[in-house]
Amino acid sequence: MIESGYPRNDFLHNQNNEETMRALKQKKMNLPLDKKLILYAPTWRDDQFYKKGQYKFDLDLDLHEMRAAIGDEYIIILRMHYLVAENFDLGPYEGFAYDFSHYEDIRDLYMISDLLITDYSSVFFDYANLKRPMLFYVPEH
Which Pfam families match (predicted)? Predict the structure, then answer.
């Protein structure tokens, strides 16, 4: 027997089911079960920084406009790169936008997401295993 695959992505293939998604959303993340989920996972930019190793990130998504456009059917999870030092004030978007930048395993976030929005980040390679929609949002600075 030949075993094949990529261990990092085995979870995405073997656990891609409603039961796993429900358990992650409800028990591990305390997210609403009746909403579709958008994952925003951009990469970091090395030209924006406070000091060496502490990078800055300008959130180019207009969360107010996004919420108005997609309504109550969706929520958005932000997963910033670990080098980004920002702490976003999501208070005005409570119940719509959640910061999961420090969540340990991004594969869980892939699993519960109905759509990925990214830029140059390599996250789309792993997310593609789920065969779900992706949008590439690449604002120029």
Answer: Glyphos_transf
- CA pair distance 31, 108, nearest whole angstrom: 13
Domain-located, residue 117: yes
d(CA 130, CA 14): 11
Strand partners, 99: 78
Give the domain CATH number at 87: 3.40.50.12580
* 23: Cα within 13 Å, side-chain hemisphere: 7
Domain total in the chain:
1
Per-residue pLDDT reduced to its tens digit, 35-86: 999 999 988 766 666 676 666 667 788 899 999 999 899 999 999 877 765 6
pTM, 2 dp: 0.86
Q: What is the mean pLDDT of the chain?
A: 86
Q: Which domain holds residue 44?
A: 7-136
**C-alpha angle with apex 41: 26 to 99, nearest 5 degrees?**
50
Cα 17 from Cα 38, distance rounded (Å): 17
How far is the C-alpha of 115 from the C-alpha of 118, rounded, in Å? 10
CA distance 94 to 78: 13
